[in-house]
Design goal:
Blueprint lengths: L4 H4 L4 H16 L9 H6 L1 H25 L28 H17 L2 H28 L3 H7 L9
Helix pairs in contact: 2-6, 4-5, 5-6
Length: about 160
């Protein structure tokens, strides 16, 4: 991946700003479904609503549990706080970055509900962004916690058992 060092900042400040821009772009992007007609949207309504509910619920659970499990070390920046400990219990036993996962799952639910290619493309960009941001965070965590490499080998980054 090309170096985006200029976006990192000392503690990842620019990554946080870029994340907010990405979220705003996702929220205000127009729904673009050029291959789906009204009849198809209506026919798929139960599946679309199910996707929204399922992925939205997963997003809420990941965000709530992720925030709860690292409540003492929670910071908007990817750089860990000075007094942090490596959390490996709760949702962090399933994924290493549940707060990033929650945003990706919420976006996936919306993209599937709207069947919007514009939102799907922004979601793909978001996945690449969060993968990069998580990599920076993991490098900082590895400096502080020698056991992080074993944890990263054992626990998936965003999606349990998959990635």
């Amino acid at each position: 991946m090309p170096s985006l060092h200029f976006l990192k900042g000392k503690r990842g400040e620019y990554l946080v700003a870029l994340q907010f821009v990405l979220i705003i772009v996702f929220i205000f992007a127009p729904v673009w479904s050029p291959f789906i007609g009204e009849r198809m949207l209506d026919a798929l309504a139960p599946v679309r609503w199910s996707a929204l509910v399922v992925f939205g619920t997963v997003a809420i659970i990941f965000a709530a549990l992720g925030s709860f499990n690292i409540r003492e070390y929670l910071t908007p920046l990817p750089y860990p706080v000075d007094h942090n400990q490596l959390v490996q219990h709760g949702i962090y036993a399933w994924v290493r970055h549940p707060l990033y996962s929650s945003q990706l799952f919420a976006a996936l639910g919306w993209a599937l509900y709207t069947l919007s290619l514009s939102h799907l493309l922004i979601l793909a960009l978001g996945f690449v962004f969060f993968d990069y941001k998580a990599g920076k965070e993991e490098a900082w965590l590895s400096e502080r916690h020698p056991e992080y490499a074993e944890y990263a080998h054992r626990v998936r980054k965003f999606i349990p058992w998959i990635y």
